[in-house]
Amino acid sequence: MAERPACPGDINIAVPLVLDDGTCIASFIDGETVTHVVGFTFVAGSEPDSGSNLTGWYHALGRVAGELHRHSEGWVKPEGFRRKVWNTETIIGRQAWWGDWRKMTQLSADDITLLEVVEDKVVARLEEYGHDADRYGLVHCDMRLANLLVNENSLTVIDFDDCGICWFGWDFATAVSFIEDDPALADYRAAWIAGYRSVRPFSQQDEVMLPVLVMLRRLQLTAWMASHSETATARRYSPQWGAITVRLAQAFLHQASPLSTIVNCKESADEQ
């Protein structure tokens, strides 16, 4: 942690507190339970006010992602540095960190069959896309607006617990978590890409892969819903999660981007 990469420009991250022995991780023993704790310096700021200009904030998110990705490419990792590797196996496969999406109780047998077809297509597309260094590396993995703190002209990125090795476009997929049925999603995507390209290249191939990564993220979140069903977030989203996920999957299989067709999916659902 002490050897974390410094952030570029006006982008900041919280500074870890160092213990007297020079380490950053404290351990507390309570009976048979060992708890590990880290601390950070206080960061002034608040979550972005998304009520008036959400598209503008997605431009900012894209720029921040591009800056961090560009920086991570040139950062020399310290000896012993390890983070989770996020790939199709650990996101939705047999080694998935968040469990099996099939265990979500709101999915019918027919739904699961459909989503398995989608899963196969997503995996095939990402295998073809590959893991070259210009598209796959150290990323935040949860860069939603809720994980930015704004203080005047300064931005601080927080919540790095999911940070690991993944596709750079994954930082867009996570940025639209839980709002894939927002009618303005295509506008958010365009703003994010524009912000990203203002600081780092993002090819047409990278852009084409964003719907694939969004679908991958949706399946991962479906697994999260199943394995974290006791949480307030799961209770809030679960009632409609399965139905919306199936509509996204149907659009995806018809060679249509969920980012451009979700409005029609949402309107169809509202009419039922």
From TrEMBL:
At the top level, the lineage of the source is: Bacteria
Q: Name one GO molecular function term.
A: homoserine kinase activity
Annotated ranges, domain Aminoglycoside phosphotransferase: 36-202
- GO BP, one annotated term: threonine biosynthetic process
Q: Which family does it belong to?
A: Belongs to the pseudomonas-type ThrB family.
Q: Does Kinase show up as a keyword for this record?
A: yes
Please tell me the species this chain comes from: Raoultella terrigena (Klebsiella terrigena)
Q: What is the lineage of its organism?
A: Bacteria, Pseudomonadati, Pseudomonadota, Gammaproteobacteria, Enterobacterales
Name assigned to this protein: Homoserine kinase
The record ties this protein, via SUPFAM superfamilies, to: Protein kinase-like (PK-like) (SSF56112)
Question: Can the keyword Kinase be found in this entry's annotation?
Answer: yes
Q: Which UniProt keywords apply?
A: Kinase, Transferase
